[in-house]
Amino acid sequence: MDAESFRSAGKEMVDYICEYMQSLGTKRRVTPSVEPGYLRPLLPTEAPEQAEPWNDIMQDVETKIMPGVTHWQHPRFHAYFPSGNSYPSILGDMLSDAIGCIGFSWAASPACTELETIVLDWLGKAIGLPDSFMAFSEGSRGGGVIQTSASECVLVCMLSARAQAVTKLKRKEPQVAEGVLLSRLMAYCSKESHSCVEKAAMICFVKLRILEPDANCSLRGDALQRAMEEDTRAGMVPFFVSTTLGTTSCCSFDCLSEVGPVCRRFGAWMHVDGAYAGNAFLCPEFKPLMRGIEYASSFNTNPNKWLLTNFDCSTMWVRDRYRLTQALVVDPLYLQHGYSDQSIDYRHWGIPLSRRFRALKLWFVIRSYGLEGLRAYIRNHCKLAKRFESLVRSDLRFEVCNEVKLGLVCFRLKGTDTLNQKFLSSINASGRLHMVPASVNDKYVIRFCVVAQDATENDVDFAWGVITEMATELLETYKAEEAERAAAEAAAAAAAEAERRRRETLAFKRSFFVRMVSDPKIYNPKIAQALAASPPPHGGPSGAKGAAAAAIPEDVEGPSMGLPPQVSPQQQTPLASWISWPLAFLFQGVLDDVASSEVPVRFRHLDTMVRLKPGANGEGGELDATSPKSTTPSPPNEQSSMHKKSPAKSPLLGRKPRGTSPNKRN
Ligand code: PLP
User: Fold this and answer.
1) What is the reported pLDDT for 616?
2) Measured between alpha carbons, how far is 399 from 410 in angstroms, rounded to an integer?
3) What is the number of other CB atoms lying within 10 angstroms of the CB of residue 118?
4) Structure confidence at residue 506 (pLDDT)
5) How far apart are CA 319 and CA 101, in angstroms?
């Protein structure tokens, strides 16, 4: 393609994009109606040897690609979080692609580096981050950088915190190998944190303790403090805490003003993940949600989510850029340049060497909208979410399941999880709206997020109309089915219970009779009294109940005895948490030293509970994987809770699997 052809195809492409954007809501279904593998038969199996006409390619876009696209910019798309998009941003990316520089160092393209530093200072100040995060503030060691994703921000910060922690330990214990020091590091996050924190811990090869938040899904200081104290006593070293402002499931906010001081006390790095909500801090009325940010060592937010900027553009700031880069510097001769002592080389701030000129689109967006325009955009979404919330509250069949602070409303039909799964499934399958589920306080909820750039009250009302109409339809059929099912289940349960009681009573009578013959304390009141007065063996119950308990045949749970189960004080007030062990399945030997600790080990990505049990010889640990049906509910996160029950999440993923689909998700 030469410049003239590009000029003409480019103009056509701009027309195509405008037409796509403007007619999206009326001409296209929000989710595609295709099944895995749909594209393979439509395209040749080999790449073309000869050049093909541009028009043929564009023709295929419309007839073969578009039918398989989920339209994230569609006014009926209310899933996940927004995917930033705007004309200035598209143009910025277009120019960046044309310039095509790879800005890994200042010298590799000075404007690419310098614009990034300046724009990140603009945005950081506008958000209200502390001055120490700004590259150009007096005496600051901080600065901002654009990464590809929030996941990468969390990983990079954890890597830095890990390097710092191991260095510190090595100074104290120079004779101990780094690998051993590494095995003592413990990172922390809440159950509500995004799954990327767990992935970062796996990559960093550190243990991650996943803590239970409070009833508002907020991580509190006391939970963290108790966990850190417990771990320190056990010889572990708390080194990193990932907090969230605006969690994925329900947009809850960790309490930084409590968590921050605990991090300080234990010398741990506090990262703040504001992937979605961080953008809202442009508005003064939302800044109180980030109270305690002064304790943060690092912060990230994604303009490519909620600031009209196209993917990829995840902005991250650190308080100490030297600490950050220490963990990531490698400096071969071919990348060095004469100005490295006076400039920033962003290759030391992240994982890849190559970097696109991403600051350009963010700069275009900020200048084209102005901070006021961006605030208006955020406020519009928040106002519409409030409108949706009040519609939900006005219908007694529904309940709101989160505190609606920004643009996300979690709601459900009053009733069972199964009912709500069915409900969401039918909405998504209809193609009239697209939403995804999450688990909030162990309940299946439906997330309604205001997503479209120019979302209006009409869009919210339309969505509510679809939701109520489909709820009425579903409840009518579901109620009748449920009543039938419940009656059948109750009858079956009653019969089973009667049979269980009959067997139990029989067993009890038989066992009691055998004991009476061989064990005098059962029927001799003097012996029973003496036993009641003596201390219990092995810490068992004492007093009259103890004697009674001792008198009960061990193998029979006397149905009428009414004795409380033995509960140790530790069991009474458990510190609910999981520990995610790095690659524990592959390296089971790592677990040997904690085999007896009965620490639950959790692999959230596999949705599997693994408990450590002492080995047969009392030494090695053994992994006992149980299904999610086991004791602990699986925590919500985008991967597990949004994608777990496929029929409810997307009509695309809800279809029956085809054996060898090339599109199979891992
Ligand atoms: N953190 C939070 C709070 C999120 O909501 C998400 C995604 O929705 C992420 C992290 C991961 O974002 P990314 O896809 O940029 O890695």
Assistant:
1) 37
2) 9
3) 15
4) 79
5) 28
